Amino acid sequence: MESLGNALHMLVQEPSVWLCLLTAAGILVYASLRARALDRLHADAAGFAADGSATHATHGTLTTWFLQMHGYHMQQSAHAAHSGSGTAYYGSQSQAIELSAAVLFPVVSSVALILLFYFFGALSWLLQLITLFGTTIALFYLFMPYLDSAMIAARVWKPLHTWLAGALVLLTILGWVLSGHWMLNNLLGASLCVFFVSFVRLPNLKVGSALLLGLFCYDIFWVFFSKHLFGKNVMLEIATQEASNPIATMADALHLPINPVRMLPLPSKLMFPVGFRVDAAHGFVLLGLGDIVVPAIFLDLMMVVDMFGSAARRERDRDRASPASRFSTLYARGVAGYVAGVVLSFVFNVLFASPQPALLYIVPCIVVPTLLTALSRKELKSMWSMNEADASGSRPYVSIDTVSATSGSDSEAVQHIAP
């Protein structure tokens, strides 16, 4: 008990831990709201393209508020995606993960992890190119609605928002490549999380449970047991590995008068300097993006169920006021469970003085309360096998059979507080 008290005392006094926790929870909630807003726009756009009228699907008040804050650009983009006219900056309908993909994802991620462990040096340039391409798209997606709203409010020439977004994305990526600063790393990581959650869906609880259970076992194995097979903690090695900076290599070859960082940490995790002292002696608090994205897509499904209701509850509530306007019970409990899970992972990190697989704590903390709530609602059976129309509330999903193996690097679920 004394050691547990000391661990809690240390965490309470460490601001970087709480900043990491608040940032992760904020990204998770923001990504879900952004995804729901995008779903609403695509539903309305599909109805408009079909018969010239919006579908008038019922949505939560939080989503409505979020849409109002984002202005009109997302709406125009969604209509463009369905009508075929104009440019759809926000893509088309989201993709639902099938059961086979959910089961295979931990296996594919494990293969990717092994390849990175043995060939990271040879693959570092390829990883940098993939990172630059992915973060460019994700940052555009993150910035565009706000810039568009600002342009409309300022009554400025509307196409200017595209140029401003391009300049902002370029400056952000250039600043990261030159400095490798942890704040810019976190911004890139956050944009990747938001983009992924906005366009990937779980169709039902069965697929969600399979995905979480598989990654739960994946995380535990690679953090706790990989050292016995590979001689090192493979997950920790990959999570803390830095790639050679191609800009530094180019600057040396061309004798350019710039001095960028030699090694560049990839934005596959959130990182906060311990005590906000950026040096090797103090280290960083790390949280893998997979510890945000995986719970976020599961909780996004819970938000959908809360907003639209399962088929059984819609039948029961047909003549009653819609529950969609109330803050989602499943989602709220899931978010609270997520915060508790991250806190527990940090506590045991300090308690055992070793990296912990965050999903070991996060998965039970979000799954147990949501399942108990669904069971008390008598919705567990319908949520387990609900079809894609139930999951979307108003529109079909586009199914996919496989998940890209390159996404495996985003599933790093390690936190580490250096001594």
From TrEMBL:
Protein location? Endomembrane system
UniProt membrane topology term: Multi-pass membrane protein
The record ties this protein, via InterPro entries, to:
Peptidase_A22B_SPP, Preselin/SPP
Q: Which UniProt keywords apply?
A: Hydrolase, Membrane, Transmembrane, Transmembrane helix
GO terms under cellular component: cytoplasmic side of endoplasmic reticulum membrane; Golgi-associated vesicle membrane; lumenal side of endoplasmic reticulum membrane
Q: What is its main location?
A: membrane
Would the keyword Membrane turn up in this protein's UniProt record? yes
Q: Name one GO biological process term.
A: signal peptide processing
- Asked if the keyword Hydrolase belongs to this entry, the reply reads yes
Q: Single GO molecular-function term? A: aspartic endopeptidase activity, intramembrane cleaving
Q: Which family does it belong to?
A: Belongs to the peptidase A22B family.
Name under which the protein is recorded: Signal peptide peptidase-like 1
